[in-house]
Automatic annotation (TrEMBL):
The chain crosses the membrane at residues 9-29. It is found in: Cell membrane. The lineage of its organism: Bacteria, Pseudomonadati, Pseudomonadota, Alphaproteobacteria, Hyphomicrobiales. This is Multicomponent K+:H+ antiporter subunit E. Belongs to the CPA3 antiporters (TC 2.A.63) subunit E family. It is a multi-pass membrane protein. Pfam families: MNHE. It comes from Camelimonas lactis. One of its GO terms (cellular component) is plasma membrane. InterPro entries: Cation_antiport_E (IPR002758).
Length: 169
């Protein structure tokens, strides 16, 4: 009987931490602890993690946690600086702003590394992840105000890819 209960619990909560996080975020976003919001949050917390089981992602293993701290030390200032530059470019810049696409050769292949890099680039204003070719390792990204494609590709390799390799690969 105990094994049955454990299997049911594993079926009900395949990712308990994700379920708890979904519920907490739902309640925070709605700024309410009403029974209706708690019920909706629980419903979402029980169903949303099921979609994660269909991803078939390899187990997450962080090899060097301090490299993750260093990566965050690069990402957070870059996001703030990029916010400032994009705001300035939109509000005060004339037609001299040049948007463009950049090809970045990547050596990372871990799904976790690539997903994290996609989140970083998308969270940084003025940049967007367009596509990644796993055969060639080339990332295509869009940049709102492109000055030097080679410099940007090098910065991504130095500031993000290097640390992602240490964290996940």
């Amino acid at each position: 009987m105990r094994g049955r209960a454990n299997r049911f619990l594993a079926w009900l909560l395949p990712w308990p931490a994700v379920s708890a996080l979904v519920l907490a975020v739902w309640l925070l976003l709605n700024q309410s602890l009403s029974p209706g919001q708690i019920f909706l949050g629980l419903l979402l917390a029980l169903t949303a993690p099921r979609f994660l089981t269909t991803l078939d992602a390899p187990p997450l293993r962080i090899r060097r946690p301090w490299a993750l701290v260093r990566l965050l030390g690069n990402v957070l200032p870059d996001i703030f600086i990029s916010n400032y530059k994009v705001t300035r470019a939109i509000l005060f810049s004339g037609p001299e702003r040049q948007a463009g696409h950049v090809l970045v050769p990547l050596s990372i292949r871990s799904p976790w590394s690539l997903a994290m890099l996609a989140c970083i680039l998308t969270a940084t204003p003025g940049t967007a992840w367009i596509s990644f070719n796993p055969q060639t390792g080339l990332l295509l990204m869009h940049v709102l105000d492109l000055k030097d494609a080679d410099e940007l590709a090098g910065a991504i390799t130095r500031r993000y890819e290097r640390w992602l390799q240490q964290v996940f690969e």
